[in-house]
Amino acid sequence: MTTFLIRGARIVDGDPTDLIIRDGVIAETGPNLTGGPGAEVIDADGLVALPGLVDLHTHLREPGREDAETVESGSRAAALGGYTAVCAMANTSPVADTAGVVEQVWRLGRTAGLVDVQPIGAVTVGLGGEQLAELGAMADSAAQVRIFSDDGHCVADPRLMRRALEYVRAFDGVIAQHAEEPRLTDGAQMHEGITSARLGLPGWPAVAEEAIIARDVLLAEHVGARLHVCHVSTAGSVEILRWAKARGIAVTAEVTPHHLLLTDTRADGYDPVFKVNPPLRTGADVDALQAALVDGVIDVVATDHAPHAVQDKECEWPYARPGMLGLETALSVVWLAVGHRLGWDGVAERLSRAPARIAGLTEHGHDPAPGRAATFTLVDPAARWTVDPAGLASRSRNTPYAGLDLPVRVVATFLRGEPTVVDGKAVR
Amino acid sequence: MAYPAADSPDPIDAVSGKTIISSADLARIVDRIAHQILEKTDGARDTMLLGIPTRGVPLARRLASRIRSFESVEVPVGALDVTLYRDDLRLRGARAVGPTDLPRGGVDARRVILVDDVLFSGRTIRAALDALADLGRPRIVQLAVLVDRGHRELPIRADYVGKNIPTSVDESVRVLLAETDGIDEIRITGKEPS
Amino acid sequence: MTPPLKLKHLLSAGDLNRDEATLVLDTATEMAATAGREVKKLPTLRGRTVVNLFYEDSTRTRISFEAAAKRLSADVINFSAKGSSVSKGESLKDTALTLQAMGADAVVIRHSASGAPHRLAHWIDGTVINAGDGTHEHPTQALLDAYTIRSRHGRIEGLKVAIVGDVLHSRVARSNVALLHTLGAHVTLVAPPTLLPVGAVAWPVDLGFDLDAVLPTADVVMMLRVQRERMTDSFFPSEREYARRYGLDADRVRSLPSHAIVMHPGPMNRGMEIAPEVADSARSTIVEQVANGVSVRMAVLYLMLGGSR
Questions:
Q1: For position C37, which CATH number holds?
Q2: What is the predicted pLDDT for the residue at B1?
Q3: Is residue C36 part of a domain?
Q4: Which of A337-346, A392-401, C55-64, C76-85 shows the lowest mean pLDDT across its residues?
Q5: C208 touches chain A (CB under 8 A)
Q6: Do chains B and A meet with 3 or more Cβ pairs nearer than 8 Å?
Q7: Which residue ranges form the domains of chain A, and what is each CATH number?
Q8: Would C255 be classed as within a structural domain?
């Protein structure tokens, strides 16, 4: 294993310092270090070293939709975005509702070797919402699943949600809910509001999300379970979470980068690249979500990276699949939206430390320090880059930021001392 | 009948161009055409005047009025819009369509005298002939113009010409009428270098 | 000379400003005059190709556009949903590329997905005319409705127009709201609360749930078609209750001012939103709306295709 000497990086918001990476760990930090013979020197003047980012919500599409993304291509996109671990959602084909499928995904992640891929297990068989999947078997498998989610679908039956919340307590698991009351969103295409009325598209009302979150936090309180809420998108949801946390309910919540920046007026022109579930909402919702991320009512940023093949996006809006790419642009978009209010310490907390804690990924989410695994990313705060859909590592092109000029570039990413990204390019 | 807004490429500027026919002369020219019509048609029986919008229409009315005052003959007046028959539509934007108003009884078997202000390439008149053909079958079609400025691109000629004014192609002949422009005058403007 | 209509596509009634909308109506008046002639054809669009791309069955609108295009001597090609590659699942994008290769000057598209004409405009060079997209808009319907109102009342400015029925799912309502507002009319939407969009509060209209309150001062009553299927979705409890509260029957017509007209875009549910005797009365403009449709569509085709690109 190569030894690295990283010169002059700021660890999160500290002063510039040198780091020595040896045998997979951070051997030493301090001023004016020498790496010894054979050490590769990285000039990190002006760069910031963050703990490797951890994504609680990614769709890698393999098995089943390898035309849109594979575990390998998704891992590459993640590493380029500064990520060292991603949690892969279960809505693959076949669904990841058995030990067999989650182990397959886990193995594919190890083979690609660019990020740690932590599979998420489905809550119900086939995501059908009717029968619990073998959650225990998935927890005991080589994949060691701890997060369970039917994402894509809501666990709508309150009785089933109660059972799931209770059951996973046995192995310290957590249910991650995609909050969407399906009977209120039948045929919905975008946020229900002024824009949807004008565009003649059926609406997805905010209450469909808020009603489920309200129910689920009360259920979690009643049975003494942990709850995680996926992709929070409304100001009303933020208020419910604030109330729940004040009561001491063990709920955590995530927000996507696109919900921190984009509003429903993007649907003008009907370009399905802006179609996503939950939908983009109003400026007031964006403001509330930004404030909630800054003050911690929302614990983490999770990308909900959702690659889609060209034919699923270059079509009429109602026929398009919802979802946006997110891994490679997440850090930049978050910095653009709330960077100055969060600071690098806040970014480290929301994009690395907190998600690692929630997922139970003990090797991740630690600021670079002597003795710690060398699992971190080096970013250039002063750089800017323009998003080119064809230039992204993902197999798909459905980014809503095409042509946008973004701040902050990932320069290098290390996974247990091995570089996965060098000079802004993936090593393989 | 309200006249549609004047359909000129350049705004009418009181000081641009050189006046070559004054208000009094214009009236005399109209009178002369009226007399010629009466003479050549042997009293303007079974005849109608169809003005081509915009300025052909008030001109046609004036001719009918002079004919009435000279010989007490009522010559029906109408309008024939040719926009939809033009052959140069694709070279410019789609223009507003003017009114087409035929006197009672239509054009079948009658003498139609088309009336226009300026005869230039002849394409407007060609379009008018096509429009007329879709409206019926006149016995005979004639053309009366206030000004013939030459430079024909089609084999078209006027039967009644108020004034022959030789011009160069890049000049512009502007007929102004009180009904549409507030003043009676004919002007020549040279084309400004671009 | 600047062309009077600067639009490249007609996707929404809101695309037209007041002058442009008035120009369309004035041009339609002249086009209507040709309908009475023996030779109804004009050579104006000779050599132009107009494609009717109809994903939804609509004989009435398609024939109207076809007649309009043919009267202007354009070549017309019909792609309809049944029995063509369109129904075999060929994507809109691939169909667009085929039309592009054929050199279509204009594509008139009717589609069940809101926004389909916008996507089509992305993929072809020609002009796109929206003949009805999902629940979004139907601009030429609004134009022919405005033309009908103007020809019956002599004007549009200041008139009180009541639009009654399933506004939530109506593209005709959206286009009419936009166009009537542009032309200076005053619009009231009347419907059960379940059939008014949440976002309609931002529209330049009054909203009402009580039809009887609106009729005595209405100059125009425009009835929208209500699908019986909306009942199973609990938008209203029964046909009987809907007809009783929102149906235009003979009694209600008596409360209208004597000059008021009754309109309907068709096809009608006789006995549901409108009583048969009302539909057939002299106040009803339903039949002339169809005739006016051809003139208005001729005007639109001429103004958008008749000039240079």
A1: 3.40.50.1370
A2: 39
A3: yes
A4: C76-85
A5: no
A6: no
A7: 4-49+369-426 (2.30.40.10), 51-359 (3.20.20.140)
A8: yes
pLDDT tens across A243-300, in order?
A: 999 999 999 999 999 999 999 999 999 999 999 999 999 999 999 999 999 999 999 9
**Rounded mean pLDDT of A212-230?**
98
Indicate if C138 belongs to the active site: yes
* The predicted structure's pLDDT at residue C229: 75
Question: Is the peptide bond between A407 and the residue preceding it cis, with omega within 30 degrees of 0?
Answer: no
* Integer CA distances (angstroms), A329 to A150, A257, A281, B184, in order: 25, 8, 20, 71
Contacts with C114 from chain A: Cβ below 8 Å: 189, 199-201, 270, 317-318
Q: Which residues of A are catalytic?
A: 304
Q: C205 and C116 in one domain?
A: no
For residue B176 the two structure tokens come to: 């102004």
Rounded CA separation A301/A282 (Å): 19
Chain A interface includes C56 (CB < 8 A):
no
Could you give the CA distance from residue A363 to residue A242 in angstroms, rounded to a whole number? 30
Joined together, the tokens standing for residue B154 give 């089609």
Find chain C residues with C-beta within 8 A of B126's C-beta: none
| Whether residue C267 is found in the same domain as residue C149 | yes
Judged by CB atoms closer than 8 Å, whether chains meet at B85 and C23 is answered as: no
**DSSP per-residue letters across C59-127:** HHHHHHHHHHHHHTT-EEEEEESTTSTTTTT--HHHHHHHHHHHT-SEEEEEESSTTHHHHHHHH-SSE
Chains that touch C (3 or more CB pairs under 8 A): A, B
What's the token pair of residue A334? 């978050």
Residue C161 lies in a domain: yes
C-alpha A337/C-alpha A329 separation (Å) is 12
Compare CB distances from C3 to B81, B94, B133 and report the shortest one's residue.
B94
C88 is catalytic: yes
- The answer, for C268 touching chain A at a CB cutoff of 8 Å, is no
Interface of A with C in 9-28 (CB under 8 A): none
The verdict on a CB contact (< 8 Å) between A270 and C174 is: no
CB contact under 8 A, A197 and C135: no
C148 in the same domain as C285: yes
* Fold of the B18-189 domain: Rossmann fold (3.40.50)
Are C125 and C185 in a shared domain? no
pLDDT at position B194 is 46
Domain locations in chain B? 18-189
Q: Residue length, chain A?
A: 428
pLDDT at C193: 96
Residues 6+ apart with CB under 8 A from C255: C212, C215, C216
Please tell me if residue C270 touches chain A, with a CB cutoff of 8 Å: no
Check CB contact under 8 Å for C41 and B134: yes
Q: Is A197–C115 a contact, with Cβ atoms under 8 angstroms apart?
A: no
Q: What is the span of the domain harbouring residue C167?
A: 139-289
Residues of chain B with pLDDT under 50: 1-10, 194
